[in-house]
Design a protein that fits this description.
Rossmann fold, 7 helices, alpha/beta, single chain, two-stranded antiparallel ribbon
């Protein structure tokens, strides 16, 4: 049995996004997993990162959020809502994020969850620096050993999000979330589960989506993750630039994926 956390961000319980979340809960529990859901709208999650996040502060005159975050995490003076979500993340073996793609990113309430929960000392500011090593991040960190997957309804059609699509490829659009938000603190990132043309889905379409999601959830711990290069895996130099000879034949963010042509291949930590 594994522990699964679902972080859900949609204001309507009868939405497609909520239906995917509900199906994920049912499917995972039927497979013997233990599931917790953080339904951010139902929780009335506080979105703003501000002074109210700290029950004790270092500087009463000027808010330096990073410094206060570091102090609060180290001294156990975070607010209870932040600490509770951090404990859920540490409890989980996998984290599913359920949200619609709004303006090429996550809804504000989910961004606010990340801003507040991913505190200094918890999701960043972890590990020692020295030589070519720059802390425990990008494949290492507090959340290493846990898998993450996005369940993302999208209003546009699939071709819009293809390699030559007008909106850009979904891989590139989700890069800031996949690589910058999830892989950074150590999560092993699975390919996303997008649902295109989500506002035009009929019953037959839903049945196919449901079957596809059940299959993806069955492989949550066995399917191959996105093969991001670990920061401390020997791929980057002291300036954190990809070393010569790596990423040949690729462009954009794809150079940061382990390639079969790499002279010295080190797979991302799973």
């Amino acid at each position: 049995m594994s522990h699964i956390l679902i972080v859900h961000a949609h204001p309507e319980p009868q939405s497609l996004t909520s239906a995917l979340k509900d199906l994920a809960v049912t499917t995972l529990e039927a497979r013997g997993h233990e599931v917790q859901v953080s339904d951010l709208y139902a929780m009335r999650w506080k979105t703003l990162a501000d002074r109210q996040d700290f029950t004790d502060t270092c500087d009463a005159e000027r808010l330096r959020y990073i410094a206060e975050s570091r102090h609060a995490y180290a001294t156990d003076t975070q607010t209870m809502d932040i600490a509770a979500e951090q404990q859920k993340l540490l409890w989980a073996d996998a984290v599913l994020f359920s949200f619609p793609l709004w303006w090429f990113g996550m809804p504000a309430i989910l961004k606010g969850w990340v801003d507040r929960v991913f505190a200094f000392g918890f999701a960043y500011g972890v590990g020692e620096h020295g030589g070519e090593r720059w802390g425990d991040r990008y494949g290492e960190g507090m959340l290493a050993g846990r898998r993450a997957m996005l369940m993302v309804p999208i209003g546009g059609r699939a071709p819009y999000y293809s390699e030559r699509g007008v909106n850009g490829s979904l891989e590139e659009i989700l890069w800031p979330i996949h690589h910058g938000t999830l892989f950074y603190p150590g999560l092993t990132v699975m390919p996303p589960f997008p649902v295109y043309s989500s506002d035009r889905l009929d019953e037959a379409g839903w049945q196919q989506v449901a079957a596809d999601l059940e299959q993806r959830l069955a492989g949550l711990f066995s399917d191959a993750p996105i093969a991001y290069r670990r920061q401390n895996g020997g791929h980057y130099d002291g300036e954190q630039r990809l070393k010569p000879g790596l990423g040949e034949g690729e462009g954009g963010t794809r150079i940061h994926l382990v390639q079969p042509s790499d002279p010295e291949q080190r797979p991302a930590r799973v």
